[in-house]
Amino acid sequence: MLNLTEYYQWFHHYYSNFYSSDPDIMRMVELKENHSIRVAKNARDLAEHIGLPLKKINVAELIGLFHDIARSEQAHLKTFNDSLSFDHGDRGVVRLEETGILDTLDIKSRENILFSIKYHNKMTTPSTSPDKMLFTGIIKDADKLDIFRILPPIVAEHDYSPILIELLKEGRVLPYSEIKTMADKRLIRLGWIYDINYQWTLAQLVNEGYVDGLIKALPDTPQFNEIKDHIKDYIAAKMSESM
Ligand SMILES: [Fe+2]
After folding, report:
1. What is the pLDDT of residues 99-113, one digit of tens each?
2. How far is the CA of 221 from the centre of ligand 1 (A)?
3. Band of pLDDT at residue 243, cut at 50, 70 and 90
4. Which of 27, 54, 139, 229 is 20 to 30 Å apart from 77, CA to CA?
5. CA of 165 to the centre of ligand 1 (A)
6. Cα distance between the two ends of the chain
7. How far apart are CA 215 and CA 153, in angstroms?
8. How far, in Å, from the CA of 120 to the mean position of ligand 1?
9. How far, in Å, from the CA of 89 to the mean position of ligand 1?
10. Following DSSP, what letter does each residue of 178-209 receive, concatenated?
């Protein structure tokens, strides 16, 4: 049986090795340490909501706890931008394997944890076993839910990149590589809505006003009204699906 307390102790100890007297680094380390704790809770809540057995609920919580383990290293490079540093999903897998923290788990749980951490920050997940898809979907939702809650609203003019507008009209998830302006980040966030896997997650984003906030921030022009209608229809359809 999993004793989650020990994993939490290990996690805090691991992160404490990255504490720094540089206030910028320290702030970044703490940001991700605290984010991880909240994502672990989100992942557990979501896993419970969809009715997983206790063992899988615990695995989901561990994935949340460990998914950003490599962010501690990025803090020391003063960037959370993977393309300017390293892929933090891949690096997380390396670190978890090196430390041996997962060694006492059964092989299936271990594989599920490593796979979903590797792919939690990728645009697409290669098709794999149902369990790996399940846990990857859970961590991506749990992660996005916390990110929506902590990111400040974007202050920017309406200088959007045309390619992102076109992709959004089709309800596509937007590639970070196409971000050219601050305003584009607003579109990226809207695109995340199409990448939410579970009704549970979407319901919270709607109820907490994040979806309306994003929609209201867009200009009142025919092409943006098309985007707004598309997202509203998408959400209405998702919310009326039976679970
Ligand atoms: Fe991450």
Report:
1. 999 999 999 999 999
2. 34
3. low
4. 139
5. 25
6. 29
7. 12
8. 6
9. 6
10. G--SHHHHHHHHHHHHTT---HHHHHHHHHTT
